[in-house]
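Working notes for the structural subgroup meeting. M.R. asked for a predicted model of this chain before we commit to crystallization trials. I am recording the input and output together here so anyone reviewing the notebook later can reproduce the run.

Input as submitted:
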Amino acid sequence: MQHAAIVILTLVSLVLSQASLEAGQDAGYTIRRYDLLITPDFSAKRITVRALVDIDNPGHDSVFVFGLNDRYDSMRVSEGHSAATAERANGWVTVTLNNPATNIRLDFRLEGSLGQSNDEKREIVADSSLFLLWSDRFYPIDFHRWANVRTELVVPAGFRAVAPGRLTATRSSGRSVTYVFETSQPAVSFSVLADARWIATERNVNGMHLHTLLHPGSQKYAEQIFRTSAEILGFFSENFLAYPFDQFTFVTTVGVYARRAYPGFVGYEPGYLEKEFTSTGHDAHETSLLWWTYTTHGRGPGSFQWTEGFGDYAELLYDETFGKPIPRVFERFRKEYLALPPEQDLPYADLRGNTPQKFVHGKYPWLMHMIRHVVGDSLFRRGMKLLFTRFQHTTFTMDEFIGALEEGCGQSLQWWKEEWLERKGVPIIATEYEIRKTGEGFRVACMIEQRGNLYHFPVDIGIVSRGGMTLHRVELTGHRQVFSFDMQEEPAKVVLDPKGWVLMQVVPIVP
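Returned structure, recorded in token form:
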């Protein structure tokens, strides 16, 4: 993975305000279903959307808040049994009902020219493609409520399409074709894409039904995508939760910066696909976001960013398991983050879509690495599975995230929360060692000094000799500690944390 990808990795490097994302999330109603009818006019570059939103409303709430694109110049909202009023402001629509029932259906009718995407430098309705991105709020969106969705899309004949769920019907009528997609389980943050140049291919690989929709120049990668994606989907299904969507589709999308994840599919810009699949040869990052964004995600200020940062670790786990190198960009962001003075660090609640990538991708995956280092592989996997099982189709706060991991790992992680999340900066470590000849071999004395804030964590000390490296795990609990080890072979050098488990600054000893 290269730097270009990370810039848009921010699954939602949104132009959306974080405070707004939280609007209405604690209300007592449930969105049961969306029915979307989407009719773009490619000649006029306009779009018409009818959105029926079915809501279970046991508390008889009267106010409902949705994100909605400001560029729609026509909007009507009605409800069959109650008078409805709607007010729009700053990318949001607030619908108020005079006499709300237990079960309601809001009927939105929208029309307008949406112009260019807020997230990508491309037109939403282009000559030969349609790019309806959830963060552009093309439908009345609730960012925190999962619901079943039926999408009916009317496009010119020759177009192919992808949307959440499975393609259940195709109807042709002269110059147009209608695609119908339906989900069998809840989804969140829907995107709908269509393109006149796509070539469709499908395969069953390892019991998984996979699709590609690729531009002609990218079609040569279809078989490689099927092979590698099946392996990656199987790995994440085993370690997190069974694949949570009706199908998996891999598409190319002209005009996006590099690549993105969508609910149930992954998209690459054709040139970036060429670059990625001739270097790393696969996509694990965006595929991991099908779990870390579209199955569950964080709630609260900064949550989209720290969710993705923690989710980065899924890619690192896959790379490690299958003997692939850690993408250099993650190492680079780690170095950039560690070079920061502690006072410039950002608390997790202060992360935003425009936060520099070194904070999100240089810190949070390595904090997950730290937990795994402490609790071990099997307990870490158990914690991950509990997290996804407990919060499937819903969201979690940071405290709920830590609580699920604690329960799954069977031990307290308050040290991790207090010392690594709630503080700014990381441990600052100075170390020196001394090797002495003894009657039976050699003794290595390693002094480790913590400067600034005191942290409590295990660290490996690697002692290198002619026979290789031996690892000794020690617990750091004080500002200055000395650890001694007896060796038969003469040591050549001592290395602190040789496998890079710990996010820390190592500084020289100054007399």
